[in-house]
Amino acid sequence: MAAMGLDAYRFSIAWSRILPNGTGEVNHAGIDHYNKVIDALLAKGELLYTLTFLLQAEQNEEMGMLLDVIWYEPVSNSTADVESAKRAQEFQLG
């Protein structure tokens, strides 16, 4: 990234990597992964900004969110296309 002259890098924390069961025990391999990413950025002298999405009083319990959804439609009315589009949509939306 430095060789390309990039002056910004954005990454998101995949909470499923940190808390694979949603709650409970922390996955230390996930913590190690993000520590390595952050250490690599610091080694290049990059300034880090950490954004935490906590509902704080001064925000009046409001926060921003970005949703990126891809909608799938079957190419035809064939059973295979309809099932494929449904499977892709379920994968996308969960």
From TrEMBL:
It holds the Pfam family Glyco_hydro_1. It comes from the Eukaryota. The lineage of its organism: Eukaryota, Viridiplantae, Streptophyta, Embryophyta, Tracheophyta. Belongs to the glycosyl hydrolase 1 family. GO terms for molecular function: beta-glucosidase activity. GO terms for biological process: carbohydrate metabolic process. This is 4-hydroxy-7-methoxy-3-oxo-3,4-dihydro-2H-1,4-benzoxazin-2-yl glucosidebeta-D-glucosidase. InterPro entries: GH, Glyco_hydro_1.
